[in-house]
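2024-03-11 09:14:02 DEBUG pipeline.ingest accepted 1 chain
2024-03-11 09:14:02 DEBUG pipeline.ingest length=351
2024-03-11 09:14:03 DEBUG pipeline.predict start
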Amino acid sequence: MLGGSSLSQLLFLPYLNNKQFKKKYLVAAINIRVISLVGMAILLYYSIFLNGNIVIGLIFVLIAIFSFSGAFANISYTDILGKSIKSESRKSFLSIKHVVAGIGIFLSALFARKILSGFSYPENYSIMFYLAALVLGIASLGFWSIKEVVASGFAIKNLKEYKTAIKTEIKNNKRLKYFLGIVKSLCFSNLIHSFLILYAKENFASGSLETGNYLLLKIAGAVSAGMLLTIVSSKIKYKNLMYLTPIIILVIPAYIMIIANISYFYVLFFVGGVGYSFYSISINGVLLEISNNRNRALYTGIAGAGSIIPTLFALLGGWIIQQYGFDSFFILFAMIILSSIFFIHKLKCVK
């Protein structure tokens, strides 16, 4: 879901890049996601009557449809966002958007827990996916009211032109090079929470209740950071926000390797949520700044390709922990996060 779908943006890019107006493609992709959620609800409801291997196989198919349609939608979404929001309003918009999303996730988590405990399997999971499809369908209605008044993109006639366009943009735009370096190094910060949960289970015998509390703290950290940035958005640059991200994230491996005490372990998830919020807002803001209506779809696809690296690192991280222990993993993680400072320093970002 994380790496493969983002990488697939490169496959969708030539087709979407040639479309000057992308709203209908965005809405179509969202509708496909709604259909996949409905399919998941139906599958889970009748899963007790089906062979287990068939159910697992169909779940993978539906998840793949959901993920790849999301990658298809993201190119159009980023392009429309860049054209619809004025540059001076983007930072506050992204901050508010992050806050609203975080609050929504928090309330959804509480609501989902109520459904899971209030109904038996498979009705509980089926109801959750039906509700998810309904809410996503309602949310997509807002895109119909957006008017694309500016055409975007340039024609890519064949595969050769596509490769040439990517090489040309990376070669001629130094900001894109350094931006990709930041994406490839800082995107690892999104993985740290999974390894923290594993660390807690193995060292502090944490159970499901603690895991739920950890994730709620992560959401609380993200929402708090978004609220703060909404207030100071006009006073802080994306580049300074990017500098803060690795500094905040590095608190986590430092605490694990130096203190390693359960007393304040919960705080690490709050800190991680703040770091994730800073990364998400700054990386999206910089992408909009270094691109324009002509090449924004192309840049979105190129940036998405870098997301395959965290997926590979997750597999590598599991092997490192198994072979050499958590300290070795956190040292490697810290080195990768530190490398982002070089790319941030090189990036010339005005706003």
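2024-03-11 09:14:41 DEBUG pipeline.report The domain at 3-140+166-345 is CATH 1.20.1250.20 (Growth Hormone; Chain: A;).
2024-03-11 09:14:41 DEBUG pipeline.predict end
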